[in-house]
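In this section we walk through a basic example: taking a raw amino acid sequence and producing a predicted 3D structure, encoded as discrete structure tokens. The instruction is simple. Fold the sequence below.
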Amino acid sequence: MKYSFVLLLLFVYIQQSNSLADDFLGSTGKHLFHFIHVTDIHVTHFGHADRIEQFEQFCNELIKSMIKPQVTVVSGDLTHNRDHTFGSDQYEEEWIIYKNILTRTNVTQHTTWLDMRGNHDGFMDPNPESSRSFYRIYSNQGPVHKGSYQYTLTTKDNDTYSFVGIDMCPRPGAGRPFNFLGHISKDEMNNIRSLSAQTKDSNATIFFGHYPLSFTYSRGLDELMKHGLVYLNGHLHSGIKHLYARHSDGLLELELGDWKDNRRFRLITIDAGILSFEDFRFDQPIYAVISNPKAAKFKTPREPLYRLSESTHIRIVIFSKFPIVDVRVTIDTKFLGNAIKAIDHENLYVLPWNASLYNDGFLHNLIVEIKDNQSNIIKSENQFSLATTTITAWTRSKLVLFIHWPTFGIVSIIAALCLYILVLVFYRHRAQRMISCCGSCFSLWNKFRLRMMLLCSIDLYYYSLIGLALYHFVGPWYFGYLTHGYFGAIFLWGTIIRDTYLPPDMQTFMGAIQLVLFLIPLTLSLSSSCYYRYQQLQSSANLVESHRDRLIRILTVYILFIYSILFVLFWAYVTTASYKLAFLLSPFGLTLAIISLLLYIKSKRLKIEDFRFKSTTDDLDSSTADSYLDDNDQRPIITEENSIG
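The resulting token sequence is shown next.
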């Protein structure tokens, strides 16, 4: 009797152990949850009808019929709000199109549609929190939430999954291009803090927003997301593929390519608390995610990784247009068998395995080949490790997602402007001391130095160019109606609009481009113009140019100056196209082109006394004179090899 009782207890224990093992990463669909992420839809009324038609098809066929996610995350740029050129505005027509898609497909009745605004949705929106904002009127979540929000779902397995949408759009919303970086105000940060606190007891918390964290002013946000499993975002489209990163605190950040041009979407599974995902192009016949074992490079200490080594089955979640006929599983080139459909989940395919055989700390290659009854075949593969340690990789993603780009931008332009000023100061000093050129130096380098010394010897140009560089630091770059009904000003250090300060946005990067592609070419053009004017003033006879020298003069003076003027006009148009009156009123608009033209005209009318340049033969030794004087004429004409003389 005593032994029978012990055997009974042992049998019950074994049964409970098997049942518990099967609960997590076993042969059933228990604790398996999946959802969809899509971003950067860019609904527009300027053509691109296929973008809208295919998005409606995506809602009808994939969301409603095939994948049937309980939650769909849409992380911003719902609408395009740009015209055919460089302007931006709030186009109600595009918001109506977006709303009509949700209405016609009735998709919000089949999935919880969690949409969040992006920077395009906030273009020229003076008060995004207002009930009159188109996002607040036409989006799915906007009428209920004026900013960040959270949604919590409880599954049939009694698992809770929380989704926290983070609104980082600047308020007020300026037009493009100075509305690219995310910014969280103090009030919005307090709101997010409250939302985050509500989700701490969930099995998994998913944060999502439009901007990658490295493109935002969001100090303190990492602390609020310390219990989050992942942060999903978009914004960068597919310029750089596979932008995934695991931060030092364990947070997984996953940027997704755009729907706009690339028709990308993401299928995410959370299997027993462990997240896996795959990014797909729309209109594939088969979509599959290997949920166990998880890819090693995406493991994070915020997951219960110990369950990987305790799992009893390889698990693949598959959605397809046609019935699946074969799921072949191979590990390290060894065929393990065919996965079969789970008894309680029509999209889960499982294959028993002995996890202890692979719990050796090494990476193993898993390949799953899936075939449907139409002979469509796809391969899904990953490298996995059952160790609980995580692996650091993706150097390209680190570059984009780990560098704080707002800080990088401001440091870069300040450094570039300081370097430009130092170069001018250096050549001013050289011109006054008349330090001789090195005879062994490259002729091209001597030509550049000679022109720069002449330019910086003239007070008008030296102080004008120094002043222009310093103006970047202190003065407003652009004036105009930066958003509907409100006049504002853009500085290097930020934007003032509606009595609100917004931190620096794209002006740091736009300014750097203007410095390299306008200010430096303008400086070179003016230096060449001053050089040839000086030659003209020093010569009492008509000089004969060689064909080569004439081409050099035309290129370095006229063509370079025409390019500089055309570029600054184009760049001023690009940066002010969204802002009324900005092109005419802004110091870096039409005004900058006029100032440049006046400086050029003046270079043709310089007098000899304008040059504070020591250039007489008495000041130079014989070796230096070879570089600077015409030996045949003995007139103090500055010359170079094959130059006028």
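Looking at the output, two observations stand out. The first strand starts at residue 32 and ends at 38. The chain is about 35% helix and 20% strand. In the next section we compare this with other chains.
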